[in-house]
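Incident review: delayed structure delivery

Summary: a single-chain prediction request sat in the queue longer than the usual turnaround. Root cause was a stuck worker, restarted by the on-call engineer. No data loss occurred. The affected request and its eventual output are reproduced below so the record is complete for anyone auditing the incident later.

Affected input:
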Amino acid sequence: MASTTTSIRQLRKALRQAADPLKAPAMRAYMKSQMPYHGVPAPLLRNVFRSVFADVEFGSAGQWRGQVLDLWRNARYREERYGALHLAGHRLALPFQTPVAMRLYEELIVSGAWWDYVDDIASHRVGPILRAYPAPMRRRMLAWSRSPNLWKRRTSIICQLGSKADTDLGLLYACIEPSLEAQEFFLRKAIGWALRQYAWTDPAEVRRYVRRNHDRLSPLSRREALKNIGAVAARAAGARIPTGRV
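Output delivered after worker restart:
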């Protein structure tokens, strides 16, 4: 079992070895990041994380949370914070993915305050906890949907991206409602994205929702919501067309 200090030291060494200084400035500019990048491309970054955290162990939820926060709070490069997110979702941390973990994720969301962090946490951490613990998480997401913090509001809107037919549609609409007329790009985009994703499950319902709220939804949200509906219809039609093969 590696200590937190050892894991951080190993991660920093591995990232330095994998770094591409020529790519780092463009990556930093694209993400508008105050924190510098090493310039490690995503596929290689995943390999680094798998290697560095191969022997990690968590004796308790508190120990897991402490390791994630230690890496997150002491990060010098953005890839180190991506490492913290990887550690948060480690397979050995599955028993800790409960509403109690929301204290951790709230800190990461609020202090990270940018889409690359927030979208990963919302869809891959908050969403599964919501599906496993719907009652307490529903209350929390409803509260977050009215938060003055736009990233908590965005999280409440997009946390069901992976829910498909299990989407709590009433919760989705309730979380969208406080932001329907918001001017913030990241909220407008989130609304459109959430609706677009649900359209793969029920395109007719998304059409109805957009029609009912046409004047309240921003053009961006409407456009995003309806973007894939033609593809959904084509896929459904294709599934009904005989191929002629036996």
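Verification: The chain has two domains: 1-96, 98-246.
Action items: add queue-age alerting; document worker restart procedure.
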